[in-house]
Each structure stands twice: as structure tokens, then as C-alpha cells.
Design brief:
By secondary structure, the protein is mostly helical. The protein has one domain. It is built from 8 helices and no strands. Helix 1 crosses helix 7, helix 3 runs antiparallel to helix 4 and helix 3 packs parallel to helix 5. It is globular. 42% of the residues are buried.
Length: 224
């Protein structure tokens, strides 16, 4: 993938992470499907208060995210480049659709949310560092700190004057995605998951086409 495609895909995926996280937050009444720092804090608070009846859900979400990270990372390692990206994206789209199917089939919150968290854990394996800032991940705390750091560098003229734009765009994409997700869930309920599944599916198809073009233009090495 070239750099513009990486940047665009990363920002879209970060926005989708905010979208799914807002949907999960509203559905779960204060828990998250991608922001695992928040779930870890909630788990600790419940344990500290001896509220063991509420421990299961944040613990299950943390486990689901971890499972997703392992599966997504394993898939990206096992699938040869440049097919790893479309493979992980396609896998993520299937997980989101599974979450939708589970949510429609049963009124229980856990099953749909579990697969949403697995999908978000898997998403982090799509893109690594994109030369300057992290995009495509499901967390932006580091991006927010980096934003402040690079603004300070711009103000003190120790860094590029616009070096903060990338991290600002990452944070803004999560913000906008979460806003759209909250509005979509209020109007569409769980059917709002169709949107991220479709977007990720389209990204998977585009990345597969790019992989095919790259293969067609790459000369084959002569056999020994």
C-alpha cells in the first residue's frame, strides 16, 4: 500500500473504531467494545467495591479484544504480503456481521458485544505505524499526547510547523466516528452495525484489487 492509501484507510478505520465504541457504550451502559483502558478501569472499580456481579462483562470484553488481537495479528503474519490487509479487513467485516446476527438473534448483550470487541481487537493488526503517527487503531490516547507534543514543538520552532496535523486528524476521526455511531444507534438500533461492516468490506475489496495490481506489475524472479 502506498502512503496516501495507508493514511486514508487508517483515518477511516479510526473513525469506525469510534463508531463501534459509541454504539457499544450506549448498548452496554458505560462499557466499551474498543477502548480497553476504560474497561480495565471499570473492572478494577467493580473488584475494589466487591461488586462481583458486574465484573463478568468488562472481563469478557477484555478477553474478547485480546482474542481478536491474537487472531488478527496471526492472520496478518500467516497470510503472505500483500494479501494480509484484505484478509484481516475481510475477517473484521465478518466479525461485525456476526455481532449483528448474534444481537438480532438473542436479547442478551454479551454475545453481540463479544464479537464487536473481537473485531476491534483484530482491526489493530491492519496497519502499523504510518511514518509519523498511528492510524487505524482503536485507541487515541497516544495520538492525543503526540498532538500536544508536536504543537509544543511547532510553537517553540523545534519541529515542523504542521507536524501536529496527522495526530489531530486521528483524534478528530475517532471523535466524529463516535458521534456518528451514537446518532446511528439512536435511529437504527443494532442495525447500525451494517455501516461499519459495509465500509470495512469495501476497504477489503479495494485492498485486494490493489494487491492484484501489485502482483501484476511485480516481475517474477527467475527460478533457480
Amino acid at each position: 500500500m502506498n502512503r496516501p492509501w495507508q493514511l486514508g484507510t487508517g483515518l477511516v478505520l479510526t473513525g469506525l473504531a469510534g463508531y463501534v465504541d459509541a454504539l457499544g457504550f450506549v448498548r452496554l451502559g458505560g462499557l466499551y467494545t474498543s477502548f480497553m483502558s476504560g474497561n480495565t478501569t471499570q473492572l478494577s472499580v467493580f473488584l475494589g467495591h466487591g461488586d462481583f456481579t458486574h465484573v463478568l462483562m468488562p472481563a469478557a470484553l477484555l478477553l474478547a479484544f485480546l482474542v481478536g488481537a491474537v487472531l488478527g495479528s496471526g492472520l496478518s503474519v500467516l497470510v503472505p504480503s500483500p494479501w494480509a490487509t484484505p484478509a484481516v479487513l475481510g475477517y473484521e467485516a465478518l466479525l461485525i456481521l456476526t455481532a449483528l446476527g448474534m444481537g438480532l438473534a438473542t436479547p442478551e448483550l454479551g454475545l453481540a458485544s463479544f464479537f464487536m470487541a473481537v473485531a476491534m481487537g483484530s482491526q489493530n493488526a491492519v496497519l502499523a505505524q504510518v511514518k509519523g503517527f498511528r492510524a487505524g487503531t482503536t485507541f487515541v490516547t497516544g495520538a492525543l499526547f503526540s498532538l500536544g507534543q508536536k504543537i509544543a514543538q511547532a510553537l517553540t520552532r523545534t519541529g515542523p510547523p504542521l507536524g501536529w496535523v496527522g495526530d489531530g486528524a486521528v483524534w478528530a476521526s475517532l471523535l466524529v466516528g463516535a458521534l456518528v455511531g451514537a446518532v446511528a444507534y439512536a435511529r437504527l438500533d443494532l442495525y447500525a452495525l451494517v455501516v461499519p461492516a459495509a465500509v470495512v468490506g469495501v476497504l477489503a475489496a479495494i485492498s485486494a484489487v490493489l494487491a492484484l495490481r501489485r502482483r501484476a506489475t511485480t516481475p517474477e524472479l527467475p527460478s533457480a
